[in-house]
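User: quick one, sequence for these tokens?
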């Protein structure tokens, strides 16, 4: 196991919440499993429409990883623009096998071309989120 995949889980730290927006169920499941093993809490959506529903529920989300080309009324680039406009505290990473990184300038915090290296993605997520706050200790 590489250093990037080492878990950052500890009883005194709150895990960052990552929303994965990917229409390919195998890619979504694989990335969710890797992020979970790395110590992140993971939410999943199969489209930008579904992601907006998840975000709209008030579920705390720290970072969105979104593909661009997806079924539905909106694509991942439109989702990234919405997140940037209405949820500026959320970080956004865009992944795509067809859209060049120049199209995400000002919209996302990072771009990864598909296929991407999961270890590098996890390192980038950690660098974007910084250290997690400690949970207050409970008295006896």
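Assistant:
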């Amino acid at each position: 196991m590489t250093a990037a995949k080492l878990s950052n889980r500890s009883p005194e730290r709150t895990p960052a919440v990552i929303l994965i927006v990917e229409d390919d169920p195998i890619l979504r499941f694989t990335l969710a499993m890797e992020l979970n093993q790395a110590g992140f809490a993971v939410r999943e959506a199969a489209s930008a429409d579904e992601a907006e529903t998840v975000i709209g529920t008030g579920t705390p989300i720290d970072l969105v990883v979104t593909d661009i080309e997806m079924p539905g009324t909106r694509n991942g680039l439109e989702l990234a623009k919405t997140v940037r406009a209405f949820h500026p505290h959320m970080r956004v990473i865009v992944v795509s096998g067809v859209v060049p990184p120049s199209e995400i300038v000002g919209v996302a915090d990072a771009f990864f071309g598909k296929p991407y290296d999961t270890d590098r993605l996890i390192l980038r997520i950690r660098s974007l989120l910084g250290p997690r706050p400690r949970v207050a200790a409970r008295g006896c």
